[in-house]
Design brief:
This protein has 81 residues and is mainly α. It contains three helices and no strands.
Length: 81
């Protein structure tokens, strides 16, 4: 049996883009443009290192967001008991 919080996290993950506003997408575009500009200025070896860094950074950010959401659900469960 799956943990109910895992089910809630999966549902949030599937619907999160619809909850984000214009400012988020504007910021995401600025981030992409800055990343592309940085990448163009790097050598091939540096680009590979940067890509590796981005992958690890994204993985840790995902774990951080899941932990935050899990803590929110646990707190809500305690409040409504």
């Amino acid at each position: 049996m799956r943990d109910y919080i895992d089910i809630l996290l999966e549902s949030l993950s599937e619907t999160r883009l619809s909850a984000l506003g214009y400012e988020y997408f504007l910021q995401q575009k600025r981030e992409r443009l800055a990343s592309e500009a940085l990448s163009r200025s790097l050598s091939k070896d540096q680009q590979a290192l940067f890509l590796s860094y981005e992958e690890e950074h994204n993985a840790s950010a995902s774990m951080r967001m899941d932990a935050f959401a899990r803590q929110a659900f646990l707190l809500a469960r305690e409040i409504y008991r």
